[in-house]
Write a structure and sequence with these properties.
- It is a single chain.
- The protein is of the alpha/beta class.
- The chain has a single domain, classed as 2,3-Dihydroxybiphenyl 1,2-Dioxygenase, domain 1 (Roll).
- The protein has 2 helices and 8 strands, in the order βαββββαβββ.
- The longest helix has 11 residues.
- The protein is globular, with a radius of gyration of 15 Å.
Amino acid sequence: MIKKLLHTRYRVHDLEKTVSFYKDVLGLEEIGRHTSGRGSQLVFFKAPGGEEEIEICKYDASGPVQVGHDLTHLAFEVEDLDTFAKHAEAKGYPLSDGPHRSPSGSVIAFIDAPEGYEIELIQRAK
């Protein structure tokens, strides 16, 4: 039986641009990097306070990366959405949607990561 979620993988074309985004914009910690047995370049990240990992994969033999609109996203809790939005915009990543208030009182917004992956940002209601 399943015990827990270990990681989520996103394949990208520009590995270093994506790594920079996850580190410099989102503030995630790079926890590992290696090349798989089939030749995939892999970089692993972890959010502060989280257990699950995010695996970023560059594997050109799989062909071009095509991310469909509204296909998938990662969601992160932020302390202060306005402060994060200003930080992300200063790094070249403005909000792409929101902010919106949810029925629970949380504030939700999105930014677009390199190559079209969406990142959801949630400031929980106090």
